[in-house]
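During the second year of the project, the team shifted from modelling isolated chains to modelling whole assemblies. The rationale, set out in the original proposal, was that interfaces cannot be judged from single-chain predictions alone. As a representative example for this report, we include one of the complexes processed in the last quarter. Its constituent sequences, exactly as entered into the pipeline, are reproduced here:
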Amino acid sequence: MATTITTTMAMMTTTTTITEGAALYRLLAWLSPAYPIGAYTYSHGLERAVEDGAVKTRADLLAYVTTVLRDGAGRVDAALLVAAWRAAIADDDAALDEAARLAAAWRGTAETALETMAQGTAFASVTHSAWPDPRFAALAARHPRALAHPVAFGAAAGFHAIPLRPALTGFLSGFAANLVSAGVRLVPLGQTDGQIATATLHPIIEAAADAAESAELDSLGTAAPMLDLLSMRHETQYTRLFRS
Amino acid sequence: MPRDLPPAPPRHQRAEGAFALHLAAGPRGTALRDLYQQAPARVLFPVPEPDEALTAAVLNCAGGLAGGDSLRQEVRLEAGARATLSTAAAEKVYRSLGPETRVESAVTLGPGAMLEWIPQETILFEGARLRRRMAARLAPGARLLAAETLVFGRAASGETMTAGTVFDAWRLEGPDGLLWLDALALEGGIGTQLAAPFGFAGAKALGTLLLAGGAAEAGRETLRSLPERVACGATIPRPGLLLARFLGPAGAVREAVAAALCALRAAQLGLPARLPRLWTT
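Output from the structure prediction step:
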């Protein structure tokens, strides 16, 4: 964990409008499990995978999260975060609105749509109150209850001059850590197993961030229909703790 | 002394098939307003059963699509027109020596129009490189029932795809703007992605079914009540849009998609609970 933070701070040297400390402080707040967007209520289909016996071990959990990041929603959402961040930095409202529209339309299942849209809406509301910014407020007003989490997050990071790579790596890390935490509760696994999984995922997250930075929105795609099926089948799961 | 002729240059003649089909509702039902077609694509109009909509059958006279080949398909239905579009046979995408096989489809549905877009499956040969885009635009009250199945490798010969690429994108626009986007992108080591337990889990075929502009909730319950022949699921990812996926062996996916189409066309489109004869003969 210490290594991650060191890397993150080293990459924040490009910021000009706010200090490194202010950027890091915002990023840590927005990515904290305590940020009230309800992240802990979503499992991204993992609850169904555990129910079906497809995730029983730490290795299974790693395979699940790896596919989410590499070939699932992580791939699309990370690229949309990058697009939103770049549009915000450039003060390009048209590009930002386009990223918001694409992200709202790019949803594979009802519950993964709920997952990202409800978190995006909550993120926009809390961030607007705690870290007000007129450009972010205008974006939220143009897309009422229709901002996907990666777009709201990417735009906020851009408007607050948080450098792209730490924001992107942070968002993906938060997404992955939330799934690991869901897995620890569902399988169940030990807390240390969960942290070993998180540590093991670091290169996957860096690779996902690299892919997102060079992605073209026009040729974005996923390759994980099993994840879609698990999410669809979670809708009819009899006993469930999670909303996705 | 007879001398050998110099070898003929390799022929990489590329097929650029295309058609544009324009249908309109008239006093005696839906009728052809205009048809443009360019070989090797052809559109035939088999006489449908009396209870079926106007049926268009797309035929690829070349027998398949090679690397570098392209196919452009345009379908436009004016207000209130009703039609079923299918293919006369499964489409084959052959191994490519490099260039991609491109398929571009555009569907425009006027107010209250109804289109079934139900081609038979597309079979990707080992080493195929397919880039396919489907864009549909629906006016108020228009309905689209669409299904596409991709088969990864020739199932009959037990072929598994370890080389090749697939990019297969959907874009749906409704009366209120962009409704849904999706793309399958198998471009970073297709063998690994097809084998990954939370990727394709070794499945040989993926069926995708969409119903836009219909009664999505009722359609989802229709699909959930069907027997499960393969790994499948139904959901409503966007308001008014029903999406179902089917993953498994090629034959079973074909049967499951066919059963889902039969149930939905009967429940929602006022068509018989069987597939057009193209699918079955």
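Residues 33 and 39 of chain A are 7 Å apart (CA to CA). Chain A has one domain: 44-234.
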